[in-house]
């Protein structure tokens, strides 16, 4: 049995989640079972969610209320995040998946919605064969330390800075 990896996609550039979803697509091609848990985003018609419905071996959960930096109720966001994290722990401990993506989970530790030590414990005690990808800005140095692979996406230029709005099929 091969050792599963802990992979982090972090940084201020575009592509963290997109890279993780590309890995999910690759894993599905090899017949792997994949679970994605999205934190922060609220359920909607995002392209990735629409695509996920087409894959039998892909389980998708959206466990957020929207972009937290625009929140009208941080306590409610914290409760939703905590519920999503409990789901993540259940999925990780189930040993039913080959790849689990914890999309935008770094925000949960950055906003203190969950304790970094609790996340580290889960990652350090995951089933040996399980691969886990964590995404989000400002990954904690403790996460980086235990990860097998860390990629930092760096913004060079972004169309948002020129007032171009998010494009369907590209940004969502």
Describe it for me?
Helices cover 35% and strands 19% of the residues. The protein has one domain: P-loop containing nucleotide triphosphate hydrolases (Rossmann fold). With 172 residues, it is an alpha/beta fold. The mean pLDDT is 92.
Provide a brief overview of the structure:
The chain is α/β, with parallel strands linked by helices. The chain has helices at 16-29, 47-52, 74-94, 106-110, 116-124, 141-146, and strands at residues 6-11, 34-39, 58-63, 99-103, 131-135, 149-153.
Content-based structural category: alpha/beta
Report the C-alpha radius of gyration, rounded: 15 Å
The biggest sheet, with number of strands, parallel, antiparallel or mixed sense and barrel status, is: 6 strands, parallel
The CATH architecture would be 3-Layer(aba) Sandwich
Strand content: 15-25%
The total domain count is 1
Overall average residue pLDDT: 92
CATH C-level: Alpha Beta
| Shape designation | globular
- Order of strands across the main sheet: 3-2-4-5-1-6
The DSSP helix count reads 6
Helix content: 25-40%
CATH superfamily: P-loop containing nucleotide triphosphate hydrolases
Helix-strand sequence: EHEHEHEHHEHE
Low-pLDDT sequence parts: none
Secondary structure: number of strands: 6
Provide tags for this entry.
172 residues, alpha/beta, Rossmann fold, 6-stranded parallel beta sheet, 35% helix
What topology does this entry show?
Elements: E1 6-11, H1 16-29, E2 34-39, H2 47-52, E3 58-63, H3 74-94, E4 99-103, H4 106-110, H5 116-124, E5 131-135, H6 141-146, E6 149-153
